[in-house]
Amino acid sequence: MKPTAAEAKAMLLFLGEIDPACTNFHRLSENGYGTVYRVHHKILDRTLALKIVRSQDAEGNATNTYTSDIGGGPKDFSILLSLKHPHILEIVSIFRGIFTEYMAGGTLLDRLQNEYDKQCGAGPVRGLPEIRCRDIFYQLCQAMSYIHSQRIVHRNLKLENIFLSGDNFPFVKVAGFGLATRLADNGQGCLMLRGSLDYMSPEMLRQPPPGYDCRTDSWSAAVILIEMLLLENAYVVGRTFPETETPGFRWDDLRDRARLGENGFDLLRKLLNPDPNLRYTSAEALQHRWLVYHRPVYPNILYPQV
């Protein structure tokens, strides 16, 4: 429901109190965990994204977590604060809200929906060209390889948590670290069910849970790659919890409609191996022949050693 003039004025006053240096508030999105605005920071002379969240405990003290008003567990932004990488969304500051860099291209979900609508109006849906998918996936694997080198599991890798610049061949930033966790030093895998069903690896959905590690993110990344190539869901049928059989993928569509080459098929099979002990990591994906000879659109990026 559209706010009244009085409600809109009150909201602007509230936003202005968060940081007086911010102007030109424009609401971008909203969910149970908070509302995101595009703002201009006068002192930094920079356009930022501002997420208004509840990050206080019952006594009003600041915490590293924020909660939802529609259910769901608390999300933690302390892990994101610890990460520094060209392809990870940067937290600029935390002051009565979370200020991050602003990505003009929106999310990868936005990009795929726009591309789907455009292709639907021009004939059969073909998917994103393989070369564009490969460049986005290359950047994604660079980010995930670094994240995993820090013994961090993202656990919520999906289209909505990948942000893009406004370019035709976009610069990629991974976000959505609220459900991320660090692996235990004793090598024990994670047990808690976290993330979105379509992107969960088989070991996350088994009962009783056998435990999982960073290779659960490899499965999620491969699902994202299929969705880019097809502009549609990656699976033949919907997934369920608990899951007793390995889900089927739309291999025929990848061959006949997306015309994915054999190297691409081989990498997907390795990333989607139902046995996590045999599944490729993000670092191994970067050494696969589908990616290792890729000439990135942004070739001068300095990546940290992993």
TrEMBL record:
Q: Which GO terms describe its molecular function?
A: ATP binding; protein kinase activity
Entries under Pfam families matching the protein: Pkinase (PF00069)
Tell me where on the tree of life, at the top rank, the source sits: Eukaryota
Q: Does the keyword Secreted apply?
A: no
Coiled-coil boundaries: none
Q: Which SUPFAM superfamilies match?
A: Protein kinase-like (PK-like) (SSF56112)
Key words, A-Z: Kinase, Transferase
Q: Does the keyword Membrane apply?
A: no
Where does the record place the Protein kinase domain? 22-291
Task: Report the protein name in the record.
Answer: Kinase-like domain-containing protein
Taxonomic lineage of the native organism: Eukaryota, Fungi, Dikarya, Basidiomycota, Agaricomycotina
